[in-house]
Amino acid sequence: MIWLSCIVTAAALLVAMLVCWRVREQKAENNAWRELAGIQYDAGETFQPAMVADLPEPARRYFNFTIQPGTKLVQAVEIDMTGELSLGTAEEPAYRPMSAREILCPPCGFIWSLRCGAISGTEGILHGASWTRFWLLRLLPVARAGGPDHLRSAFGRLVAESAFWAPASLLPGAGVTWEALSANSARVTLTAGPLMAGPLMAGPLQQSVEIHVDAQGAPERVIFQRWSNANRDQAYRLQPFGGELSGFQQFDGYRLPTRVVAGNHYGTPDYFPFFKVTVTDVRFP
Question: Which fold has domain 2-283?
């Protein structure tokens, strides 16, 4: 029975190693969350329409809809969400119920903490490094990703979601530029600042996002060219990604969408909305 004892001992050691690995990553993610939550604008700074007076008219309309005058400007926002996430394809989407919480702090980073059935984990970006870390039953690693291509893709997500839930981060200032596209759309370009610097960055990260607004300024659609390998070739390249926003509600002076449907190849026959969520709460740490 010596062989059985050896197998049991090896299995126990493997489980212990996996638990230590998971605990170490969880601790690092918790520390990163606290760091992002502590990044804020100068205390007491509030939104005034004069701040956006020189922007293209659709951009002014966007800010005047999403931020009430006198609202305190915040850089970090926490979002709770539920909904459906597809782990399949457009032909067989296999949507699964999910819940997630996210901290978004443009342009410094974000962390998205997901639970989808037996799968849980995080995606994030901070200090010029990004990651995808998903686990089965909180013990077995099932998806791991990182590297320069992943970083560029994650930064695209960060900027797009800024237009969803962190409009104050897109106000005119260092690293932010705006241009008009049409009577109801404008393009914002965000360049990463010093806090994003890291070993994988050969130069500043930059991402442009189109924001399409209605007559009142509500951002109905956000579209951008994302660096992604979500394609038949599984090769990284620029391709359209888009989200449709609705269900706007007030949160401490910010009017933000509570319904988001988004996916790859937006505006093409290959569009697949794999991400469908409803926001249940928004907080400003």
Answer: outer membrane lipoprotein receptor (LolB), chain A (2.50.20)
